[in-house]
Design goal:
By secondary structure, this protein is mainly alpha-helical. It has a single domain, classed as Response regulator (Rossmann fold, 3-Layer(aba) Sandwich), CATH 3.40.50. It has a two-stranded parallel ribbon with strand order 1-2. Helix 2 packs across helix 6. The chain is globular. The model has no long low-confidence stretch (mean pLDDT 94).
Amino acid sequence: MQYLIDEAGLSEHIELDSAGTSAYHVGDRPDRRSAATARRRGIELRGRARQFEASDFDEFDYVVAMDRTNLEELRRLAQHERHHAKLSLLRDFDSESPPGSNVPDPYYGGDDGFARVLDICEAGCRELLAEVRRRHGL
């Protein structure tokens, strides 16, 4: 998503962060296979993993989950109706995906799984960015 924001010249207007719902990988860099797949497309994956915190609901306008399991965990963390209104699934932004579709876990799909997941994420992120631009006049 950051790549698309930068490409659109919107990095001064849109703040992005990524976080997981569990602490398994806190502090880790992106998976080397994900990073290599993205790099082949000219995308650098930066940062280190962190765990989502309830205060993130107040920090961000959109809280986007990759799958229904994480969405349910985020719903449990949401303390107010305004927090629930910020929640969505990434693939729900992709007009080519059935509603409620999960981003599959690439770790079990071989090397092709990482490319497939990147395709899925890019499609969802492109339409999410279009929604953000429409909604916020960017």
